[in-house]
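Our preliminary data section would be incomplete without showing what the modeling component actually yields. Below, a chain of 96 amino acids is followed by its predicted structure, encoded as tokens that our downstream tools consume directly.
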Amino acid sequence: MIACYILYSSSLDKFYTGITQDNVESRLEKHNNSSYGNHYTSQTKDWEIFIVIPCDSVAQSMKIEKHIKKMKSKKYIYNLKSYPEIIEKLKIKYSE
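Predicted structure:
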């Protein structure tokens, strides 16, 4: 499944946004096991899946990821979860 996903760490009180073409659960496990070396997610091992946004293509998932990161807002990320219509609008906006 191609997806844009957002992880949350309660110990850092921070979010991480990424994309995957694999299973999101296995991707989460890799983040929590520091499989990506000394990257952002290696700071802690308590990452949890916050939101998964299934996408139609890698290009769409990359555009949605970039959009979310550009917002630089926890409130925006919480709103994505509270108001699924925002996600649907993003998927339409960035459809091919």
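The CA atoms of residues 66 and 80 lie 15 Å apart. The chain has one domain: 3-93. Preliminary results of this kind motivate Aim 1 of the renewal.
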